[in-house]
Amino acid sequence: MNHESYLRAVALPEYADQAPDAAERGASLVARPPHATVDTQTVEDRYVYPVPEPGEDGACGVGLADDPYNLAQICGLEYDPERLRDHPNTARLVALDETVRRLAEETNPDWLGVYRRATNADGQEVLVKEAYAGEHSRAEFPLTESFAERSNNATVGRTGEAVLVDDVDDYDGPYYECDDSVQSEFCCPVLAGNDVVGIIDAEAHEPDFFTPERVCTIAGTCAGLADSDLLTPPRVEA
Fold first, then answer.
1. Which pLDDT does position 64 carry in this prediction?
2. Which of 70, 94, 145, 151 is the most exposed place for a label (fewest CB within 10 A)?
3. Which residue in 182, 237, 229 sits closest to 30, CA to CA?
4. Which of 198, 195, 202 is nearest to 216 (CA)?
5. Containing H/E element for 219?
6. pLDDT at site 103
7. Burial of residue 131 (number of CB atoms within 10 Å: 0-12, 13-18, 19+)
8. What pLDDT does 86 receive?
9. What is the pLDDT of residue 237?
10. Are 89 and 75 spatial neighbours (Cβ–Cβ below 8 Å)?
11. Burial per residue of 93-121, b for 16 or more beta-carbon CB atoms within 10 angstroms, e otherwise
């Protein structure tokens, strides 16, 4: 799907004739999984990350939870760092991390993350954070109607339509606050055909941060991810 068609598909028609070079550049930032075996520290870095202590009613609490989040289970794997060194899912997560870092360098937000649509251990459909650059944040966003009423991520994951918040203080739509420094946000779906397979969420500490060029670059990366296998865990035993 070309950049114009993709922007229209994710409900951003006003950007369809803007910054085509930025969209192409965004798609080119999607990394390929490495062929080399990684070390156990890389396995830990890609699978395990700190998360905030949950607050009341699922909101972000104060401080970090005692137990970090581990992606192995939601990827259908047993967490064994030595056996996961040359696993194709580890290579997938390494490529996702590289993609996030390239996109963060290109667009320079204060926070950027890629979430994959998945089913968690409780059988609940969620968006799970698989790579990010910035402060620690929650790992899963439930894709329920009730949670979408207060979360852009869940709303975008359910509808397949992007959400751009130019100024948080003036925004009256669903908004999940985990960092009160955030002043603007762009959340874009990774749309494969008619299916939302994930999202990219980006946040900045200043209003009106997401210019047409930044919007098109991030949407271009979403389109590139949709054409890749990076949001599809390989069905291989650890």
1. 87
2. 145
3. 229
4. 202
5. helix 212-226
6. 98
7. buried
8. 95
9. 61
10. yes
11. bbbbbbbbbbbbebbebbbbbbbbbbeee
At residue 105, what is the residue type?
E
Residues in the chain predicted with pLDDT less than 50, given as ranges, are none
Interval 194-226: pLDDT, tens? 899 999 999 999 999 999 999 999 999 999 999
Beta bridge partners of 64: 52
What is the three-class DSSP state of 20? helix
Residues 54 and 51: their CA atoms lie apart, in Å, by: 9
CA-based angle 88:130:15, to the nearest 5? 115
CATH topology classification for 3-226: Beta-Lactamase (3.30.450)
User: What local confidence, expressed as pLDDT, does residue 180 receive?
Assistant: 73
If one counts every other C-beta atom within 10 angstroms of the C-beta of residue 237, the result is 8
**Residue 44 confidence (pLDDT):** 98
Contact yes or no for 218/26 (Cβ under 8 A): yes
Q: Which position has the token pair 């599809």?
A: 232
88-100 pLDDT tens trace:
999 999 999 999 9
Instruction: Output helix, strand, coil percentages for the chain, rounded to the nearest 5.
Output: 35, 25, 40
Q: Give the span between the Cα atoms of 28 and 216, in whole angstroms.
A: 13
**Domain locations in the chain as residue ranges:** 3-226
Specify the pLDDT at position 116: 98
